Amino acid sequence: MKELLGILRVFEDGRYERIEVHTIVPAGIDPSTGVNSKDAVYSRETNKSARLYLPKTATPNHKLPLLIFYHGGGFVDESPFDTTYNDFLNLVVADSNVIAVSVDYRLAPEFPVPIAHEDSWEAIKWVAQHANGKGPEPWLNEYADLQNIFLAGDSAGGNLTHNMAVRVGLDTPAGLRFRGAILLHPYFWGTERVGTEADWMSPGLIDSVNELLALAYPGRSGMDDPLINPAMDPRIAGILCSKILLCVSGNDFMRDRTRNYKTLIENCGWKGNVEVVEDNEESHVFFLKKPTSKNAVTLRNRISAFINSA
């Protein structure tokens, strides 16, 4: 038996189990922020839902920016209904005064990549059903400014955010306008080491990332599949939004990948602007683990400023 990145236990007979036990919480009014939430099915075919969040300041006559959020978990774990992500979205929505759609997508290995990406796209198409103000979800009809949309996600959700930003550049759903993308410690990978990875990454860590990805994406074209390694995707110059907020942590095992993404995106011909936030002493997705810490609060303030400066 081996453990992969603290996410999966994999047994010699091929069985696997998720390590972390999650606490699922119901939607409703959060007592600390006043943010209200509810769940809505975005795909009848797959029966997948999203959790919607509405700040207490919302009024029907004042449209708010829309944040479409994708959770992390290496494509194999986590949920928008878990207390960790529910608490985080309550804070982000309260701080940024946005309406949010936190997307549940099918997880590997049961549903291997690119199913997570297809579900993520289905959620965007569902949002587009509200462009005429007559969609199935009243909150989106009444409160969401669909000309002011932001994509966001952490870790694997950061990967989904990037890939959705590329996809909307190729096929923008009618009635939607995407203003920016927020990549929080995004999960990218590749065959070749980048930055300083060769200096500090142990063979064991590299093998764990490789093995986890092989479980999540068994049909991949190697570790350099364009969905995983953006350097191999010739379409990235077509990212539709005009700005990206890229968040890095100094003790994150993905830090060199994130910094390399900045270089890649600036040199690919894309005409937008990349803003980088670095927390030198923090680890991967620290803002989920320590939501009240000074650096987590500062990061949420940067997210708010990024959204509301559009």
Automatic annotation (TrEMBL):
This is Alpha/beta hydrolase fold-3 domain-containing protein. InterPro entries: AB_hydrolase_3, AB_hydrolase_fold, Carboxylest/Gibb_receptor, Lipase_GDXG_put_SER_AS. Belongs to the 'GDXG' lipolytic enzyme family. It holds the Pfam family Abhydrolase_3. Transmembrane segments: none annotated. The active site is at S155. It comes from the Eukaryota. One of its GO terms (molecular function) is hydrolase activity. Residues 67-287 form the Alpha/beta hydrolase fold-3 domain.
